[in-house]
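Hi P.,

Sorry for the delay on this. The queue was packed all week, but I finally got your sequence through. Input first:
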Amino acid sequence: MTARLPRPADFAPPPDAETRARWLEADRAVRPERLARLRRRLTSAGLDAYVGVRPEHIRYLTGFALAAGEEKAAGHSGQFLVGAEEVIVLADSRYEIQARREAPEARIEPVGYDLPARWPALLASLGAKRVAVEAGFVSHAAWQRLAAAAPEVELVPVEGWVEEDRATKEPAEIERIRAACAVADRALAALLPEIRPGVTERELALRLEWLVRTGGAEALAFDVACLAGPEAALPHGSPGERPVRSGEVLLFDFGAQVGGYRSDMTRTLFVGDPPERDLAIFQLVACAQAAALEAVEVAVGRAAAGETLPSGRAIDAAARQVIEAAGHGPRFGHGTGHGIGLATHEEPRISRHATDAPLPSPTVFSVEPGVYLEGETGVRIEDLVLLDGAAGRVERLTRFPSEALVVGG
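Then the structure:
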């Protein structure tokens, strides 16, 4: 058990305006190379243009940023085309000023909700006859409408092109993830004195959201999960009116967004003295996480001597073996981790279903094993980790203590 509870002052302060401006300038500086990588893929595949619809991709490649969930009401605004010489950003009257400001190197086209009507002219302006489309994010109906609007143009499904590039993080990207981690660390530390028996999950979740948003984040990375007692057995549960009770666990899963980049952490706290069963599960999960982190550190050390980095599947196996050996394998159903950046879940995957390909470098991913006993309790510990094979470095970006903490006793 940790004797002293963490305090907000233990963690780095939020970034100032000068730092945020420097991050934007860093994005502008690297954007030409990001586009060049995509264009090299197009040339290699014999394609003329790329059509993107994911908000993360338009921010990564052009600088234009939609707020979280805004794409649901934006029509085609925020979608884009990359040709051999030009980038087109679609933006109706609601977004035109913003698009000109944030994507000054792109041609802004005022397309609203009727992209098929403009589709032939847009492709003709790029000289595009074979076009890559983000197939995993375009509906079948939308695909058919675009195909019918320009039947002489071949639409070619592609997946994972930009996602693969985004998995390798640039220095300014890592800075923002680290800053988002610090915002989350401070927010949870500030919340600790307010945790007591009787307060509800929903009240604590709302309070934590407020602390994140007022502590340097422009948004949450995702909705706060605050789960007490047996509700902690729901890996992706939502906070309700259940009150916190002494002698039970209290699980928080949340993250901050800073400069467009996200953090993700999970802490399982004990309200009052923990029962032996819950403490044993906590220690098991902590050992599983430690095994995964040790596997990463050993592999990075070997990479410095010329060996390849491990796969996400290998790191998952290191954590999973610990839990399976204790007889709780069926109670750890999700993956050990996931990449993070402009999206909360991105490449690389750290799971049984990951490929055997070596992890990218530098990259950032979560390590979050868990054990869930239905109707009884649940424990998960999640930290973000920076892996930099060339530098021989593994760094835990989440600084909030991962040891067992007793609160509200």
